[in-house]
Task: structure prediction
Amino acid sequence: YAAVDFPTEGQKICSLALVYRDVNGNDAIRARLFKKSFTNGGNPFAAPTVVATATSATGVPATVRIAKTTTINQPTVAQANAFYYVLVDGPTINLAFLGVQIDVKKTC
Result:
């Protein structure tokens, strides 16, 4: 779990990439970017929105791999009334999470 602070309001989230090493043929590692909207006086328990999900590929090469998605839900950065965070799920110890890259531009 890590907070994401985008540099500029109104820019577009173009992609989410998961960088990993996977030597487990049965389990996957997954990175999800979430947006938690808020309003003063609003419901604090309202569910966050999944903005993007990147999941490791099948196979077990013991090398660095990248899973990238350009399927983005609510791509416009709106930090004035929301915050963003990344959550990575790795159900076993032989899934090595190396990092996440988020591509943000004026236009995609």
